Amino acid sequence: MGPLAVNEIISSNTNFFLAFVIGIGFGFVLEQSGFSSSRKLAGLFYGYDMVVLKVFFTGGVTAMLGLLFFSLFGWVDLNLVYVNPTFLTSAIVGGLIMGAGFIMGGFCPGTSICGAAIGKLDAMIFIVGLFIGVYLFAFGYPLFETLYKSAPMGSPKISTMLDLSDGVFALILVVVAVGMFYGSEWVEKRFPREEY
Predict the structure, then answer these.
(1) Within 10 Å of residue 143's Cβ, how many Cβ atoms?
(2) Average pLDDT score over residue span 44-56
(3) What residue segments make up the domains of the chain, in order of their start?
(4) Is the model's pTM score more than 0.85?
């Protein structure tokens, strides 16, 4: 479990067990939230169902606050938390490709696994497409390497880029999240869709 395992607060075996339990819990929450339904997921883009946005925002804010409090109590060293390096151009291109795939297929990689786990055929076909894409990228990497590594930004944190402390940034993000919840309720009422 990241820094806890690195600091040997928990053993390697406990690390794997906790990851397994958390993974099962995560899948359960995804399925119970309706993330195994491509129509519910697509509802975000069409404005009639904002559950996806609410769940993702809730997950992000919960993880952020959890890490901040764990750091405050000395249970986690935030300097040991890995932050993926950012390559701006490939992030934008990849986001556009994934967004298009999300709209056309109705799933993202994680939710397709969730849908396939409960027997949804469309999710299984989506996973086949996912593996084809991974295969093509892996074996075609020399062709994509320049694009993939363009506009490197290191491993930035938004709070650092805005010259804010982590606590102030967390407060601002919580306020934004609350505003988003109210805004999404308004959008759902504005674009209702009863049957899906």
Answers:
(1) 11
(2) 80
(3) 3-190
(4) no
